[in-house]
Specification:
The complex is a heterodimer. In chain A, 34% of the residues lie in helices and 15% in strands. Chain A has five helices and five strands; from the N terminus they run ββαβββαααα. The termini of chain A are far apart. In chain A, strands 2-1-5-3-4 form a five-stranded mixed β-sheet, sandwiched between helices. Chain A folds into two domains: 73 residues, Beta-grasp domain (Ubiquitin-like (UB roll)), CATH 3.10.20.30; 70 residues, [2Fe-2S]-binding domain (DNA polymerase, domain 1, Orthogonal Bundle), CATH 1.10.150. Chain A is globular, with a radius of gyration of 15 Å. In chain A, β3 and β4 form a beta hairpin. By secondary structure, chain A is an alpha+beta fold. In chain B, a hairpin with a 2-residue loop joins β8 and β9. Chain B is built from 17 helices and 25 strands. Chain B has three domains: 164 residues, Aldehyde oxidase/xanthine dehydrogenase, molybdopterin binding domain (Aldehyde Oxidoreductase, domain 4, 2-Layer Sandwich), CATH 3.30.365.10; 297 residues, Aldehyde oxidase/xanthine dehydrogenase, molybdopterin binding domain (Aldehyde Oxidoreductase, domain 4, 2-Layer Sandwich), CATH 3.30.365.10; 106 residues, Aldehyde oxidase/xanthine dehydrogenase, molybdopterin binding domain (Aldehyde Oxidoreductase, domain 4, 2-Layer Sandwich), CATH 3.30.365.10. In chain B, strands 4-1-11-8-9-10 form a six-stranded mixed β-sheet, sandwiched between helices. A six-stranded mixed β-sheet of chain B has the order 6-14-13-12-7-25. Classes of the chains: A alpha+beta, B alpha+beta. At the A-B interface, α1, α2, α3 and α5 of A face α1 and α16 of B.
Chain lengths: 155, 670
């Protein structure tokens, strides 16, 4: 079937099987490799994208279900090669180790900055509950997002 | 800024699944749905008839000449674990390749599976050519006749745990113009290269292995697995590139898990708290097939059973045994957490039995002078370290809560040493290490060492992914070894490069960066007591929602030698602590009564999410430098060694019930 998706402001159109998962469309049709497949069952969040501004796991959705919606992937968070506030903070604080979770935490972190009133440690910790990091014990990531939120508020 | 992280934010990483080559075939494995069965017939797919090869042992602790059953690439005649490769299918379309899995028909005659250490010892051998299910037997220490006032006995068990890196295993193989080129997510391109060339009968000069960006490993990406051989074989046959990416379900059934260790121990001592001896048996469930690391695991655990303590009498019998489960591999700590859990849990029980504070008892048993254990382990005196640590965590206050404290050592796997290469290329200093980083922060110590010796600015230094065409010889990254071994090799390579530069009258950094100098260094290393770090860990448990024990806070007072980068060390410690805590609370690979893994998803394996993270209090200490030019000690596995016994004790205090089995048994809550 013919599917047209709007990803990071650009339309991608292709003939794909109806069962094509959103994550496979993003990676294989649009060629955006920053969104990863970690578990295929929604356990890990490595495939997290924003769908009309809401964080979703793109391994749990068919590409066809995302037609007519605005999809933002990790690549779409940085503008003109400049990292957004969350990404800058994660990077500066060297919060990530293996980096496979980069999409998950920067998508979730961005959503937190844009949508949460309270961005204290406990709230961020609880908001991140759907994204797995096996390397860091989470604290460095939570701190980086809390700090990014603090800096945003100052600006 | 970390260039590596930025690359991932821009979608410019190059993980193995990101590699796309023209005419690529997608490989899928058809796996056994039985834990123990005769294969009556296989219809369809590539099978053992096409690839009648057997794996060879590579990776951690590789030694030749042991007598054990090695895994075949495809099951031959019998399947011995759920998830064992029986056949393979492929297609140029990823989805179609998956569909083809269903087209292969396998007829089985089911046999009774052997699923525990106890069953293994009492059942007929799962390998018909053997007389029993014992892989290897070891004697550690020396027999002694205990005449102590106090005898403490217990049976302890640590369940199997999956490495579960966020990125599963994967490979792209492309046989082209007489060369086998392999891109792989790995801890060691050398282990892969040596293994593949041996198994496939290729000249190592024909095999090039390139490390893709590697999304975590925790032990699971050091050895050669059947799928890698199949992918290479298929590419050699079709002359097309072949990609295989593991699903999480396959990771659960077929990637090598760790732990699965049991101890029956007696600790002897007097009523004043002096430990006089330890004896007993240690068993390790290696699953259906063995390798060097798994078969010798009980002896490695026994070797370090005395931890930092002075214990004059030790006698341990070790057994590795076969079961109808996936073959065992290393998981973060690989033997170190087992030893720490066993001795520390025994010490807590001893303290309870004689009514002494467990910390006081521990301090009492530390050596005043360098001590050689009857197992051969040499440790330096550490009393002042632990005394200061106890003050630092404010134990006298903590004691009022449900606290557990563990003392531990971290033995780095320095054996084999390591290599490093530095090459200046168009103003950039490129570095390759024999141990292939997946960003446990190798780049930070690389930059620091090169800044110190060559004075090159950090932004000019790039740590490259593993590449056998650039650096011919190397070992791997595992066993808390990299800072010591790769750090040592890089330090010395940098000294060589400096000498070369001086000879050429290069005397500014600018001139150096404009040169095309390179230097390479390899050095073997032996474990030296100065390389052993000391670990003090404490955990506090509380009851959540009235029913669920959780670890609220964790303290780590860890000796890392001369820290190469505090930032680098911190995340390694907190990451390890959380894994260690979770191994107590819920993380495990459990099987049903037919030998099928119970968890079907990553979440169901009990891994920690952000909401499970305790509050960490980490203090990074230098208690002497290691006997290396840069003075670093290991750190990668510190948390997984220290946290389980501390967290288990904390929960024991909370529930007022003995915790001798991990993960927590729900019966304890009844």
């Amino acid at each position: 079937m013919r599917i047209r998706l709007n990803i990071n402001g650009k339309d991608y159109e292709s003939d794909v099987e109806p069962r094509t998962l959103l994550v496979d469309f993003i990676r294989d049709v649009a060629g955006l490799k920053g969104t990863h497949i970690g578990c295929e069952t929604g356990s890990c969040g490595a495939c997290m994208v924003l769908l009309d501004g809401k964080p979703v796991k793109s391994c749990l959705m068919l590409a066809a279900q995302a037609e007519g919606k605005k999809i933002v992937t990790v690549e779409g968070l940085s503008e003109g090669g400049k990292l957004n506030a969350v990404q800058k903070s994660l990077s500066q604080k060297k919060a990530l180790q293996c980096g496979f979770c980069a999409a998950g935490f920067s998508i979730m972190g961005t959503w937190i900055l844009e949508n949460e009133q309270d961005t204290d440690y406990e709230r961020v910790k609880s908001d991140l509950a759907g994204v797995v990091c096996r390397c860091s014990g989470y604290e460095p990531i939570i701190n980086a997002i809390v700090e990014a939120a603090k800096n945003e508020r100052k600006d | 800024m970390s260039e590596r992280t930025e690359k991932f934010f821009m979608g410019k990483g190059s993980f193995v699944d990101d590699i796309q080559l023209p005419n690529m075939l997608y490989l899928e494995i058809v796996r056994s749905k039985k834990a123990h069965a005769k294969i009556l017939e296989v219809k369809g797919g590539l099978t053992a008839k096409d690839i009648p090869l057997t794996l060879t042992s590579t990776g951690e602790s590789y030694r030749m000449g042991r007598n054990y059953e090695v895994e075949p690439v495809f099951a031959k005649g019998k399947v011995l674990y759920y998830g064992q490769p029986v056949a393979a299918v492929y297609d140029k379309d990823k989805y179609k390749a998956r569909d083809l899995v269903e087209s292969v028909e396998i007829a089985y005659q089911e046999l009774k599976p052997v699923l525990s250490i106890e069953e293994s010892l009492s059942s007929s051998p799962i390998h018909e050519n053997r007389k029993d299910n014992i892989v290897a037997r070891f004697e550690i220490g020396k027999r002694f006749s205990p005449e102590s006032e106090v005898k403490v006995s217990d049976e302890l068990y640590m369940e199997r745990v999956l490495p579960n890196p966020l990125e599963t295993r994967g490979i792209v193989a492309y046989y082209n113009s007489g060369k086998l080129n392999v891109w792989i997510s790995t801890q060691s391109v050398y282990s892969i290269k040596n293994g593949l060339s041996k198994i496939l009968g290729l000249d190592p000069a024909e095999v090039n292995v390139f490390q893709a960006d590697t999304g975590g490993a925790f032990g699971s990406k050091s050895a050669v697995y059947p799928e890698y051989v199949i992918a290479c074989y298929l590419s050699m046959k079709t002359k097309q590139p072949v990609k295989w990416i593991e699903s999480r379900e396959e990771h659960i059934s077929s990637t090598r898990p760790g732990r699965g260790a049991k101890a029956e121990l007696q600790l002897y001592g007097n009523k004043k708290g002096k430990i006089e001896g330890i004896e007993g048996k240690i068993y390790v469930d290696v699953g259906a097939y063995a390798d060097d690391l798994s078969s010798t695991s009980p002896s490695w655990i026994g070797y370090q059973i005395t931890g930092p303590y002075l214990i004059e009498n030790v006698y341990i019998e070790g057994y590795s045994v076969y079961t109808n489960k996936s073959p065992l591999g290393p998981y973060r700590g690989a033997g170190r957490p087992e030893a720490a859990f066993f001795i520390e849990r025994m010490i807590d029980k001893f303290a309870d039995q004689i009514g002494m504070d467990p910390v006081e008892l521990r301090l009492k048993n530390l050596p005043e002078r360098p001590f050689q254990s009857p197992t051969g382990l040499k440790v330096l005196p550490s009393k002042s370290f632990f005394e200061e640590g106890i003050k630092s965590i404010n134990y006298s206050e903590l004691k009022k809560r449900n606290v557990g404290v563990s003392f531990g050592i971290l033995l780095p796997a320095v054996f084999g040493g390591e290599s490093a290469k530095i090459k200046i290329d168009e103003g950039v200093v490129k570095v390759w290490l024999g141990g292939n980083a997946h960003w446990q922060r190798h780049e930070l110590f690389v930059k620091r060492i090169l800044k110190e010796i060559l004075e090159v600015p950090e932004e000019k230094v790039v740590l490259m992914n593993g590449d056998t065409t650039e650096l011919q010889k190397g070992i791997g990254t595992w066993g808390s070894r990299s800072a010591i071994t790769a750090g040592n090799a890089l330090y010395k390579a940098a000294m060589l490069l400096k000498e070369k530069a001086e000879k050429m009258n290069i005397n500014s950094v600018e001139q150096l960066l404009n040169s095309d100098l390179s230097a390479e260094y390899y050095e073997n290393m032996q474990l030296d007591p100065t390389m052993i770090s000391f670990l003090l860990t404490a955990a506090v448990a509380e009851m959540r929602d009235g029913i669920k024990p959780v670890i609220e806070e964790v303290w780590a007072y860890y000796d890392v030698g001369e820290p190469l980068s505090e930032e680098a060390v911190y995340g390694q410690i907190t990451g390890g602590l959380l894994m260690g805590v979770q191994e107590v609370l819920s993380e495990a690979l459990i099987y049903d009564s037919k030998g099928k893994p119970l968890p079907e998803t990553m979440a169901a394996t009990g891994i920690a999410y952000s909401i499970n993270a305790p509050k960490y209090h980490v203090k990074i200490k230098t208690f002497g430098r290691s006997n290396t030019p840069h003075g670093a000690k290991g750190v990668g596995e510190a948390g997984t060694v220290g946290a389980p016994p501390a967290a288990a004790r904390a929960v024991e205090k909370l529930l007022n019930k003995r915790v001798n089995k991990l993960p927590l048994d729900f019966d304890l809550l009844a």
